[in-house]
Amino acid sequence: MKHNVMDILDIVGQLADLKAVDSKNTLAIAVLIDLLIDKGLFSRHEFAQKAQELESASLAEIIMKRRSELRTPR
């Protein structure tokens, strides 16, 4: 498959745009987490524990857990 220079430059530009969007999204998430911690909704330790739990779980496990929580009245 042969690409011309303009196609390659377009792809590189798209990747740069994605990187910029990812950076802004990461900053927004970090700000939200800090605000929620500052407001006392959860601690950094609780956040880290939950992050570790979700990281080690598969997507299917997370979905099944959320569905079961929605069915269980609080």
Summarize the structure.
The protein is mostly helical.
Protein described:
The protein has helices at 5-38, 44-56, 59-71. It is elongated. With 74 residues, the chain is mainly α.
Shape: elongated
Strands, total number: 0
Q: Give the percentage of residues in beta strands.
A: under 5%
- In round numbers, the mean pLDDT is 90
- Rg: 20 Å
What is the helix/strand order? Answer: HHH
| Low-pLDDT segments | none
Biggest sheet descriptor: none
Give a quick set of tags describing it.
about 70 residues, mainly alpha, 3 helices, about 0% strand
Write the layout of secondary structure elements.
Elements: H1 5-38, H2 44-56, H3 59-71
